[in-house]
Amino acid sequence: MEYVINIGLYELIPLSILLFSKLKPKKICVFTFWVLFLFSALSYDVGWDYIPYLNDIKNLNIERHEFLEKQLMALSFNLDFYQLFFIVNHLLILLCVLYTIKNESRCITLSIIVFICFPFMFLTGLSTIRSALATAIIFWATGKFLKDKRILLYLVVVLICFFIHKSSILSLLILFFYYIPLNRWGNLVLLVTAFLVGGMGIIPSFNNLFFFNNELLSDVVERYDRYVQGGGDTGSQQLVQIIFVGINIMNIIFYKSIGKTDIIRKYITLINIGCCLFFVFRGNTVLASRFSRLFYLFVVLVIPYYIDIIKIGRKNAVGLIVGVCLIIFVYQLYVPNYNGMDPWRINTYWPYKFFFLQ
């Protein structure tokens, strides 16, 4: 019963947004911002990294974090308002993502639903806050600057994001493949090659030589050795990746149908790069997820193009895609993934609690 109640509360988020989009579609981004911002900014112990972050701020144990996040943590500590760290991060995440969706998506409501429901996006951002912020900013900068070839500004943003989360250095791959896009066969060859390389175990064999002895690269993946020692591979992580691999394969199959513009073809390639990184490093799924999630956010801009190839009418096609998204959303709330101290708790996202009531 507790599970049903909590799932119902979470489902109100996408359902309320869908309802509002019917009533006032032009205000949907504003409405979505306030719903998601209040939900994330007021939350307490939602997401598996919330309590570790909170303890780091309380104890001013911030040396392992990047420069900009350390300053925000120190400010939260000095103001004796620890929730400020979470509020500012979630504010920036939502502003970057929703701004990009509003200006880049051909179906804003559907892109918003994908962002809310898919793994590595809104819910995951409640946990991996620094990584989520860096990903959101890079997502915004890609649409804002690369389209107009303002490469220097993009590089400045990448540098800023490096002081938020070091994994953002991988966004240099976005710069490379954005201007050297691959066609369907190029994407397929790259994907198959990555799958074979990962299966041969070539990359993991370089662990001691390449990762452990390089302080910078070790920081990029946040102490890669900790993931290896911890096993770093879970069934839930594998299933989450299967969702994106499936979408990527469909992108390649329907490349000509959905890749109607040069920009979308670029985004299809970037999603494929994310899947390639997963395959190459799939010996450790947590590490693979750290690498690939930076590219998966572009799914929110590609999914709306599937409306045209689902030959059941636009309204029914949107309804079908939304239905699949809601199933994926519920799945994330169902998977046992809590790693805290409460022996009765199963999922890291529920029960939902307000920080000001703790």
UniProtKB/TrEMBL annotation:
Keyword Repeat included in the entry's annotation: no
Q: One Pfam family for this entry, by name?
A: EpsG
TM ranges are 28-44, 81-101, 113-139, 151-178, 185-206, 238-255, 267-288, 294-310, 317-334
Keyword rRNA processing attached: no
Alphabetically ordered keywords of this record: Membrane, Transmembrane, Transmembrane helix
Protein's recorded name: EpsG family protein
Organism name? Butyricimonas virosa
- What are the top taxonomic ranks of the organism? Bacteria, Pseudomonadati, Bacteroidota, Bacteroidia, Bacteroidales
